[in-house]
Known about the structure:
The chain is of the alpha/beta class. It has a domain at 38-44 and 81-240: P-loop containing nucleotide triphosphate hydrolases (Rossmann fold), CATH 3.40.50. Helix content is 32%, strand content 24%. The chain has 9 helices and 10 strands. Helix 2 (102-108) packs parallel to helix 5 (145-157). It starts with 10 loop residues before the first strand and ends with a helix. The structure holds adenosine-5'-triphosphate. Adenosine-5'-triphosphate is lined by residues 20, 23, 25, 43, 45-51. This is ABC transporter ATP-binding protein. It comes from Chromohalobacter canadensis. GO terms for molecular function: ATP binding.
Amino acid sequence: MTAQQQIIPLIDACNLHTYYGESHVLHGVDLTLMPGETLSLLGRNGMGKTTTLRSILGFVPPRYGEVRIKGVPAAKHRPWQLIRQGIGYVPEGRGIFPGISVREHLIMAARPNDRGESPWTLERVLDTFPRLGQRINHDGSFLSGGEQQMLSIGRALTTNPDMVILDEATEGLAPLIRDEVWKIIHEIKASGIAAIIVDKNIDNLLEVAEKHILLVKGEVIYSGGSKGLKDDPAILETHLGVA
Length: 243
Ligand SMILES: Nc1ncnc2c1ncn2[C@@H]1O[C@H](COP(=O)(O)OP(=O)(O)OP(=O)(O)O)[C@@H](O)[C@H]1O
C-alpha cells in the first residue's frame, strides 16, 4: 500500500492520562477507530468509559497523551467544532433542550458532510424514526426517554457524520424501545458510519461491534475482536459480571 492509499483513522487516541483535579482516572488508554468500524467501550460503572469519550472529544482534555481526529491533533480543535469534524455525539443524558421542538432539534445542527453530501435528510431521519414524525411539533422536554434518545440519535445523523459516539445507548429505556435503538444502531452501521458505543448489553455489543475495548480502573485490559471475548468468557465474567 502506498503512503497515499494509507487509511487514516477517524480517531487515534494514544496513551491518554486524564485527571479530575488530583484524581488520576485514565491510565494510558489507547483507542483507534477506523472508517466504518463499530467499536464498543466496555467496563463496569466508574471504570472510565465516559471519561475516555470526553477526553477524545476535548471536554476533559488528557493531561498526557494525544488524540488525533482524522489525522489532526485534537488540541487544534475545540469541542464545539465536533460536528465540523464529522462527529455525531449522543451524550449520556441525551442533551435535549426544553422549549425547542423536535423539528427545531433536527434542523438546528443539520449540515452536509465534508464531501458536500447530505444522505441523512430530515425526511430520512423521520422515516427511520416514525415516532419523531408523530411528535414533530412537541417540545423536546415533553418526550419520553426513548423518544428523547431517538431525537438525540436523529439529530446526530442530520449532521451527516463519519462517526457517531453513543454513550449509554439504551440506558433506562423500556425493552421494546431498546430493541428499536439497537435496530437503528445496525442501520447506522450498514450505512457505513463508524461508531463507538457504550452500553450494558454485552450480547448486542458482541453482535454489532467488531472491536471491543474493556476498561478496568482506567486501564485497557482487553482490546480486540468479538472472538477473543467469546473464546475467553472469564474476562467478561470477571470484569463485567456476565456469566
Ligand atoms: N466530574 C468528575 N469529577 C470527579 N471525578 C469524576 C468526574 N466524573 C467522573 N469521575 C470519576 O472518574 C471515574 C470514571 O468515571 P466515568 O464516568 O468515566 O466512568 P464510566 O465507566 O463511564 O462509568 P458510568 O457507567 O458510571 O458512567 C469514576 O471514579 C468517577 O467517580
